[in-house]
Amino acid sequence: MTYTLALERSAPTGSLALYDGERPVLTRAFDTGHTRAPEWVAAMGAALDAAGVPPAALARLLVGTGPGSFSGIRSALAALHGLALPFDIPVLGLSSAAALARREALVAGADTVAVIGDARRNQLWHAVYRLSSAGRLSLAATGAAPGHDGDDFVLCGWDELPALLPANALLISPDAPRLTAAKAGARLADLLAADVAPVTADDLVVLWHSDPDAARRDPVPVYLHPAVAT
């Protein structure tokens, strides 16, 4: 079996992608505005039926772990685990930020990319990646492959951020519309004016093919704040 199904629901526009090896079979986008509505799960099943690929033919399931819509990521994980369980299909997690970084690095011809986002609570999150000549992504701070979890990311305030970013890094943000109202230095203001397309399920598949061993075997959503005690 060579089929890979990927699901990305951390972004405002969610998507799924089905690949046969490295050949795309189908891509479907859907609105993630109503993260708890069941319609998108039915749409996923219908897309597989239309492609003539039963769940038993899937070799692996990929899911974007964020950062992003926590409800969307959790629902994606639940749906894929439900699909995987009867057929013992592995579910593999990949950071949505890492997939976005690799895509934009290739588009811009950059070898260092900083992804910056809104962590709420008056904080930002960021991760700095490097892309090798072989096409593999690593964390700039350590040279290690991304863990595709919260340990890949650093929380900081606006005032702290410029000193934490490499001077030569390409700066991108999936949250630019939300961050434009914040006060920022000229360099970050230029970043927020940039138009970066949302991460997609296709980006997840491309990232996985570049380094299959780096995917997280027991994926969890990227959550950047400690849980609130009750």
How does this structure look, described?
By secondary structure, this protein is α/β, with parallel strands linked by helices. The chain folds into 2 domains: 3-95 and 198-214, ATPase, nucleotide binding domain (Nucleotidyltransferase, domain 5), CATH 3.30.420; 97-193, Nucleotidyltransferase, domain 5 (2-Layer Sandwich). The chain is built from 7 helices and 10 strands. It starts with a strand and ends in a 20-residue tail after the last helix.
The count of DSSP E runs of length 2 or more, i.e. the number of strands, is: 10
Spatial shape: globular
CATH H level of the largest domain: which superfamily? ATPase, nucleotide binding domain
Strand order of the largest sheet: 3-2-1-4-5
CATH topology of the largest domain: Nucleotidyltransferase, domain 5
- Give the helix level as a range of percent: 25-40%
- Which architecture of the largest domain does the CATH hierarchy give at level 2? 2-Layer Sandwich
Radius of gyration: 17 Å
Which labels suit this protein?
10 strands, Nucleotidyltransferase, domain 5, five-stranded mixed sheet, 2 domains, 230 residues, alpha/beta
Write a brief structural summary.
The protein is α/β, with parallel strands linked by helices and 230 residues long.
Secondary-structure map with pairings?
Layout: E1 3-8, E2 13-20, E3 23-31, H1 39-51, E4 58-64, H2 70-84, E5 91-94, H3 96-108, E6 112-120, E7 123-131, E8 137-139, E9 154-156, H4 161-164, E10 170-172, H5 176-179, H6 186-193, H7 201-210
Parallel strand pairs: 1-4, 4-5, 6-10
Antiparallel strand pairs: 1-2, 2-3, 6-7, 7-8, 7-9
Helix pairs in contact: 3-7
